[in-house]
Design a protein that fits this description.
alpha/beta, Aspartate Aminotransferase, domain 1, 2 domains, 5-stranded mixed β-sheet, 12 strands, 39% helix, 15% strand
């Protein structure tokens, strides 16, 4: 807008659409960055606008393809993960879908695993298949099968998560990334359970996170992000803009606010989870506890080698089976029966809400989800109160 329009005498109906501007003087800045709650941005001239659209100068034009508040969040998360760029979007599942669609083409092959978040499996098995993308599904434990598949089938990418949802298996990242890259495949890791500060030292091409979980922390805002090296993000970004699921600036602001307490929350939740996992492992009603920080976890040594903290998810199997799981979940007073994780409130998923319906018998065996499997997400309540609540509920199973 030409500067003269700022001071020209206009009627009230015009002024409310062109209010006086307030710009901070040099050397004066807000402690909390502002929310750029604007869809559109302008430059001083047509030529400068075209230069920006052609990538010849920095700036923002339309929030579907970029926004300053969203960009600040992207840069923060990329730095935490040890990469130099990121793309934020409307939800974690949206990040998974957009990454898979932007990185594959008809005729490509994807290697994926039974121990994977259900929507991720559905995107690969249903949606990508419609567009001619093939896949092979294995168990994350089958390193020989991974090597054999990569050697036998030209593969575009390997999609995995660690720790896995819901039974917290730990993927051997060093081996899987080495095998993938030896055969020319990209690695795409859903790193939501591990958080933004873990696994960045492994040769992962794309990290995916649901920002709804540990970034938000309070369960009241949704978002997703893909984090990668800059050239890969730049290759993906045009496709993401066409999908039209850019993160809203106000959501980005709330996520930035949540990230201020990320380390405090994550570490406190992990410490409580480890303590409660130990309590559950000693309880007579519990058959088995799956928590990577426990010495009895099948991959405890691998977890200690790869991770500094082990997450807030504690999964265990009740001896009494699914109906015991139902009674247990309904008897809890401090755990909400609902999905998600990473929020300040503790959550529980009983067996009836965990058991997959899309598996062959072999894949169900790989998943290691048993009839009495229960998943807990540990929040920020006092651990002693949570322990007492668990004890009361277990007595009723």
């Amino acid at each position: 807008m030409p500067s003269g329009a700022e001071t020209a005498a206009v009627r009230p109906e015009t002024r409310v659409n062109h209010p006086p501007r307030v710009e901070l003087p040099p050397g004066n800045r807000p402690l909390t960055p502002p929310i750029y709650q604007s869809v559109k941005f302008e430059f001083e001239s047509v030529d400068e606008t075209l230069r920006a659209l052609n990538g010849q100068r920095p700036g923002f034009f339309y929030s579907r393809t970029g926004n300053p508040t969203v960009r600040q969040l992207e840069l923060l998360l990329a730095e935490l993960q040890g990469r130099d760029d990121a793309i934020a979007c409307a939800s974690g599942v949206n990040a998974i879908a957009q990454a898979l669609f932007s990185l594959t083409s008809a005729g490509d092959h994807v290697l994926c695993f039974a121990e994977t978040y259900n929507p991720s499996r559905q995107i690969i098995r249903r949606f990508l298949a419609r567009f001619g993308v093939r896949h092979t599904m294995l168990s994350i434990d089958d390193l020989a099968g991974i090597e054999r598949t990569l050697a036998g089938v030209p593969t575009r990418l390997v999609f995995l998560e660690t720790p896995t949802n819901p039974v917290t298996k730990v993927a051997d990242l060093a081996t899987i990334t080495r095998l993938a890259h030896a055969h020319g495949a990209l690695t795409v890791l859903d790193n939501t359970f591990a958080g933004f500060h873990q696994h960045g030292d492994y040769d992962v091409d794309v990290f995916l996170h649901s920002l709804t979980k540990y970034a938000a922390g309070t369960g009241d805002v949704m978002g997703g992000v893909a984090i990668a090296r800059r050239e890969l993000v730049q290759a993906m970004r045009p496709d993401w803009g066409l999908f039209g699921a850019q993160l809203d600036p106000h959501a980005a602001f709330l996520l930035m606010r949540g990230m201020k307490t990320y380390f405090l929350r994550y570490r406190a939740q992990c410490a409580a989870a480890l303590s409660l996992a130990g309590f559950l492992a000693a309880h007579p009603a519990v058959e088995r506890v799956r928590y990577p920080g426990l010495p009895g976890h099948p991959q405890a040594a691998l977890a200690r080698a790869q991770m500094r903290e082990f997450g807030s998810i504690v999964t265990f199997d009740l001896k009494g089976g699914p109906e015991s799981g139902r009674r247990f979940a309904e008897a809890l007073q401090l755990f909400a029966i609902t999905a998600s994780l990473g929020s300040t409130e503790s959550l529980v998923l009983p067996p009836q809400m965990i058991r997959p319906k899309d598996f062959t018998p072999e894949q169900a065996e790989w998943s290691d989800i048993r009839p009495g499997t229960v998943r807990l997400s540990i929040g920020l309540e006092d651990p002693d109160d949570l322990r007492a609540d668990l004890a009361r509920a277990l007595d009723l199973t």
